[in-house]
Design goal:
7 helices, 14% strand, Rossmann fold
């Protein structure tokens, strides 16, 4: 079975901006199954993309990952996560998506990465 990674917004934005740590980490993702939450997709596409080329790059990147929808399973886990951790709702949805698809959440958000929620595996590559 290939390793599954759910990529958080901060990782994707850092990658698109050419941050060395994100580029190095992404180089090791060959063959992995890549996911992003629908919340991440919305955050990326609403981010201050200054040029048409930046937006095109973001869309091309998102086309390479499987978008996890906000379905009943994700909602249920997000609600439990938010109640148990007091995460912001978008962070709880992203973390819940990682739990539901059984993926490692790749994030540089230290608070999110250090949750210790059952079933939530995180990796901070920054």
């Amino acid at each position: 079975m290939r390793t599954r990674y759910l990529l958080d917004s901060n990782f994707i934005i850092s990658y698109l901006q050419g941050a060395r740590w994100a580029l190095v980490f992404a180089g090791g993702l060959t063959g992995a199954e890549l996911y992003a939450s629908v919340i991440t997709e919305m955050e990326i596409l609403s981010y201050h993309l200054v040029t048409v080329e930046q937006e095109r790059g973001a869309r091309l990147f998102l086309d390479q990952v499987t978008i996890v929808p906000l379905d009943e399973k994700v909602k249920s886990v997000a609600i439990a996560l938010r109640r148990g951790t007091r995460l912001k709702l978008p962070d709880a949805v992203v973390a819940a998506a990682a739990v539901v698809v059984d993926a490692v959440l790749v994030t540089s958000d230290r608070r999110l990465a250090e949750q210790g929620w059952p079933g939530l595996r995180t990796l901070n590559p920054s």
